[in-house]
User: Which sequence fits this backbone?
């Protein structure tokens, strides 16, 4: 019985694959959001801040919108590492920074 060698997954290959997937998904989201803007669609953004068990703090930013068939869509836009506590002014400035990206 012979086994064919499966391709090795190198860290470089994994990184390149993830970068490619990220670029495609980012492009899809940008197109969808541009369509929402062009059609005067409305959206909502939610924030979720938390502290992980290793004491690192994060902020998740999600956008929600309805399509033409009134089906709701939710997409995680970004997860940001927080350098300060979860106070409103800091979260707002972090949100603005992320949305500008």
Assistant:
């Amino acid at each position: 019985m012979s086994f064919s060698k499966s391709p090795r997954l190198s860290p470089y290959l994994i990184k390149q694959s993830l970068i490619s997937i990220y670029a495609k998904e980012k492009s899809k989201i940008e197109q969808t959001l541009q369509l929402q803007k062009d059609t005067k669609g409305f959206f909502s953004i939610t924030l979720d801040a938390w502290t992980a068990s290793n004491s690192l703090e994060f902020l998740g930013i999600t956008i929600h919108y309805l399509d033409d068939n009134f089906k709701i869509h939710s997409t995680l836009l970004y997860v940001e590492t927080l350098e300060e506590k979860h106070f409103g002014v800091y979260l707002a400035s972090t949100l603005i920074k992320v949305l500008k990206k």
User: Anything to note?
Assistant: The chain has two helices and three strands. The longest strand covers residues 72-82.
